[in-house]
Design brief:
CATH topology of the largest domain in chain A: D-Maltodextrin-Binding Protein, domain 2
Strand content of chain B: 15-25%
Helix content of chain A: 40-55%
Largest sheet of chain B: 5 strands, antiparallel
Strand order of the largest sheet of chain B: 4-3-7-6-5
Radius of gyration of chain A: 20 Å
Structural class of chain B: alpha+beta
Distance between the termini of chain B: 66 Å
Radius of gyration of chain B: 51 Å
CATH class of the largest domain in chain A: Alpha Beta
Structural class of chain A: alpha/beta
Helix content of chain B: 40-55%
CATH architecture of the largest domain in chain B: 2-Layer Sandwich
Strand content of chain A: 15-25%
CATH topology of the largest domain in chain B: Beta-Lactamase
Shape of chain A: globular
Number of domains of chain A: 2
Oligomer: heterodimer
Chain lengths: 338, 459
């Protein structure tokens, strides 16, 4: 794998990929491959590279151009069709469902898709291949002697009782920028009123807003943040500097996001796109069940945590409604921007 | 088709044909009914859920300080995902002005009332749209809120395809069961006719009893007519027998008179050629009166056979009486009529008929035996519980191949030329023996001459 820097990307591809805001980019596979796939994804390169490398190794003759963009950019890229893409992988389930619902995804049926459990497939268009819980990441240094909260209620209490520790040191997604942040926030709000109280408390502590899970974890590791709320647990668990923080799945309920892939209508190479999807599903599922990741989250998720996977389906379109979106953002802003 | 229906053909096939055509029509009807009902039900259930969804959106709207607020509830769309994965589209319009959702989603031009459905195509998909309307008053005046919820019909058409398959299978099974039943019905219907046919064809040639086989009501007129026909046939037969008997009887008396006159006349005649002519006349008269007698006998056999009166008859007595009675006639022809061995056998039967049979056989023997010949009548045991009366002569015997047809009415042997005879004698004997459960055997004896055996079951 040759990883190419963000700056270099912009210089090399700015002209070609018109107005697409690329966050990162990588090439996989042989340069002289006869087939090529362009993947647009919200997933970090380090997260996805094992899957892609095994696909490239298996097929031999495919090179992959992997482009990382925000979920909103991904949505815009596919809706406006600024450039053909062969695969779209996103954590923003609502946007994936909307793309499929609006007819921007191809249907794909194969042995691999038929073996999927019901929750992992929608309309033969959207295929989920992970279950990633929204976690709370705490800085061990910042907490010190303070008790580690187990649920949102305890978190609220801890924050209220220790404003001097946490002021300006609480981070969460900016739901206006991040599709995943918006998805987590709306699902949290749907699950419990506690979310709004927590948001208000975070607002009163001058919460910092971020676009991405990695940034928040970085800040926690660096000591800038004491708490990062609704961070992708999978990203936290995958890091080498885990000693600096603790990852918590709130026991009252934990929202679980399904990362999903679809084949855009604009795909230039649908046969290989389908092969890639099948490979993705084969790697992620075994006998109709997700291969449980061998990490602490997987085991912890089993003891008494109420995991609530978000369902793929038309209901996800509700929070994308103009009115609904506007009123949610307004409410959120009034809670967090004090 | 017309010719097929009007062709007499086979009742079974026509019945089967009609039943099968009916069953096929019913099966096809069943297929379409099940399909259309299922289709309507599926359509209704989709309409219901779309209605619920549309109203939940309508109900979520409220006016706050003169401004419309639409707050689509999560379940408005999540309920649509319950049945199957369908794509969902919606549009919210206020007084014809698009507010949110999919702007291109077709909206109904004119709808009365507050709820309407339509099927349309959207984004290349067949969709079902439910539109709910509600008047609403805002600060700038009152308007109409219109919420359309649409859903693709992929699941519906999958369901319909499945139901169509099921309905087709159902129709096929129905048809097969009906076909089996139709075959059974056709066979059952035909069975009384078969039974009647069998009972009629089993009958002997002289069996003219009325048909008593039980038949269905519909066939009763046929059986009644048949019985009437049999009755008329029987009457007509017996009438003609009566007529023949009457005619023969009326002939015999004047013939006897003519014969007597001829005898007297011949004695007065002196010229030889006149005598010869007269003798020929007498021979003809004799033959005619014999034939008349045989016709009478035959009629009597037919009459008595229908209602046989049986008594125990000792065969030696029968033979002795008969020989005694016929000896004068034999002597006239210079024939030697003798009684042979007489075994002590008895049979049950009608004495008059058996006498007539034996007389006819002896008479036949006398006719074909040349002058000076010998006829022997005897009784013996035939084994297997049978008694035999054998009449043998030393005449020319029967013509070689097959003596049997000689017992047919008016049939005469090929060697009978020059001998007067009616050909009725053996027929009468055979009829008599048949009604007694016996038979007539015609054979030639080894030393030349014929032998006629009257075979009867002994008691």
């Amino acid at each position: 794998m040759r990883r190419i820097g963000f700056a270099l990307c912009l210089i090399l591809f700015a002209g070609q990929v018109f107005a697409l805001q690329i966050e990162d980019r990588a090439q996989f596979g042989p340069d002289d491959a006869s087939q090529s796939l362009t993947i647009i994804s919200t997933a970090d390169i380090s997260f996805i590279s094992p899957l892609i490398e095994s696909f490239v190794a298996e097929t031999q003759d495919v090179s992959i151009d992997y482009i990382v963009a925000s979920s909103a950019e991904l949505m815009r890229a596919l809706e406006e069709e600024v450039q053909p893409f062969d695969i779209a992988i996103s954590s923003a389930m609502d946007l994936q469902v909307k793309l499929a619902n609006d007819g921007r995804a191809r249907t794909h049926r194969s042995d691999a898709t038929r073996a999927l459990p019901d929750w992992a497939i929608w309309n033969d268009m959207v295929f989920a291949f992970t279950q990633e819980p929204a976690a709370i990441v705490l800085s061990r240094a910042a907490f010190g002697e303070l008790p580690i909260p187990e649920n949102r209620q305890q978190l609220i209490t801890t924050l209220r009782n220790n404003p001097e520790v946490f002021r300006g040191r609480v981070g969460t997604y900016d739901v206006r920028d991040s599709g995943l942040g918006y998805l987590f926030a709306t699902q949290d709000a749907r699950s419990s009123e506690t979310y709004w109280r927590l948001t208000e408390v975070m607002g009163s502590l001058d919460a910092k807003l971020y676009c991405c899970s990695s940034d928040m974890i970085d800040e926690v590791v660096r000591g800038e943040l004491a708490i990062a709320y609704n961070v992708l647990g999978s990203y936290a668990e995958g890091r080498s500097d885990q000693s600096a923080f603790t990852t918590i799945l709130p026991s009252d309920f934990t929202t679980v996001m399904l990362r999903s892939a679809l084949i855009p209508q604009s795909s230039q190479n649908p046969a290989y796109s389908e092969q890639f999807i099948d490979h993705l599903l084969d790697q992620s599922f075994e006998g109709g069940a997700l291969r449980v990741p061998e990490n602490a989250l997987g085991t912890r998720a089993q003891d008494g945590v109420d995991l609530r996977p978000i369902e793929l389906g038309p209901a996800l379109l509700v929070y994308l409604d103009r009115f609904k979106n506007r009123s949610f953002i307004e409410e959120w802003e009034s809670a967090i921007l004090r | 088709m017309v010719s097929w229906f009007s062709n007499p053909g086979s009742i079974r096939q026509r019945l089967l044909g009609f039943l099968l055509v009916g069953a096929a029509a019913m099966a096809i009807l069943l297929y379409f009914i099940v399909r259309s009902v299922a289709g309507q039900l599926a359509q209704e259930s989709q309409d219901n859920i779309l209605t619920a969804s549309a109203y939940s959106v309508v109900d979520s709207t409220r006016v706050r300080s003169g401004e419309l607020i639409v707050d689509i509830p999560y379940f408005a769309f999540s309920m649509l995902g319950n049945l199957s994965d369908e794509r969902v589209f919606y549009s919210i319009r206020l007084g014809g002005e698009f507010l949110s959702g999919y702007e291109e989603l077709p909206s109904l031009e004119n709808i009365d009332g507050e709820l309407a459905f339509q099927s349309a195509e959207f984004l290349g998909q067949d969709v079902r749209i439910a539109t709910a309307r509600r008047p609403i008053s805002l600060s700038e005046g009152s308007s109409v809120l219109e919420v359309s919820i649409a859903q693709t019909r992929q699941g519906l058409s999958d369901t319909l395809a499945r139901i169509s398959g099921l309905a087709a299978a159902l129709g096929l099974v129905f048809f097969m069961v009906a076909a089996v039943l139709a075959t059974l019905i056709a066979n059952t219907t035909i069975r009384p006719i078969d039974r009647l046919t069998a009972s009629l064809s089993r009958r002997g040639p002289r069996d003219l009893r009325p048909v008593t086989t039980p038949v269905p009501v519909e066939m009763e007129p046929l059986v009644t007519s048949l019985n009437g026909f049999i009755g008329r046939l029987k009457t007509s037969l017996s009438r003609s027998e009566d007529f023949i008997a009457e005619a023969a009887h009326r002939l015999r008396t004047p013939l006897a008179l003519v014969r007597t006159q001829a005898d007297i006349t011949i004695r007065r005649m002196e010229r030889d050629e006149n005598r010869k002519a007269m003798r020929d006349m007498i021979t003809a008269i004799d033959e005619t009166s014999r034939t008349a007698g045989q016709l009478l006998d035959h009629a009597m056999v037919s009459l008595r056979a229908d209602d046989l009166e049986t008594e125990k008859i000792a065969l030696p007595v029968l033979v002795r009486d008969t020989v005694e009675r016929m000896t004068p006639t034999a002597e006239l022809k210079d024939l030697d009529l003798e009684i042979g061995t007489l075994a002590d056998m008895s049979v049950r039967g009608d004495l008059i008929l058996l006498q007539s049979a034996l007389e006819n056989v002896v008479d036949n023997a006398m006719k074909y035996t040349p002058i000076g010949g010998q006829i022997v009548v005897g009784v013996s045991e035939g084994g297997l519980g049978l008694a035999l009366i054998a009449v043998s002569d030393n005449g020319p015997g029967f013509p070689k191949p097959g003596a049997e047809p000689l017992t047919d009415r008016f049939a005469r042997g090929t060697n009978a030329e020059g001998i007067v005879g009616s050909g009725l004698g053996l027929t009468i004997a055979q009829d008599v023996l048949r009604v007694h459960g016996g038979a007539l055997n015609l054979t030639n004896t080894e030393g030349g001459g014929a032998c006629v055996e009257l075979v009867l079951p002994s008691v």
